[in-house]
Design brief:
The protein is mainly beta. The protein contains one helix and six strands.
Length: about 90
């Protein structure tokens, strides 16, 4: 089953078509909670995830795979500023 996630920041907005189980060609989108800002951070990037886990675990709390999505070749990072998250 799929759903649409709307992501907004001060700079950009985008609509993503996402799914909750991994069909071919999708990547996991990892979800983190930022205690300092009270917002969620999402990333598809494995290197970014490793850096958050190793260097910023005091700020970003890993919450697991949020969903699966087809990666955008222009950007592998997604940011949500709270209150704009879709739910399946």
């Amino acid at each position: 089953m799929g759903f649409v996630l709307l992501c907004f920041t001060a700079v950009w907005a985008t609509t993503l078509h996402v799914v909750t189980s991994p069909p071919p060609g999708t990547k996991p989108v990892y979800r983190y909670w930022n205690n300092r800002l009270g917002t969620h951070f999402y990333t598809l990037d494995e290197a970014e995830r490793a850096k958050l886990d190793s260097q910023y675990s005091h700020v970003f709390i890993y919450e697991g795979v949020a969903f699966y999505a087809w990666p955008d070749p222009n950007s592998l990072s997604l940011v949500s500023t709270g209150g704009t998250e879709g739910t399946p």
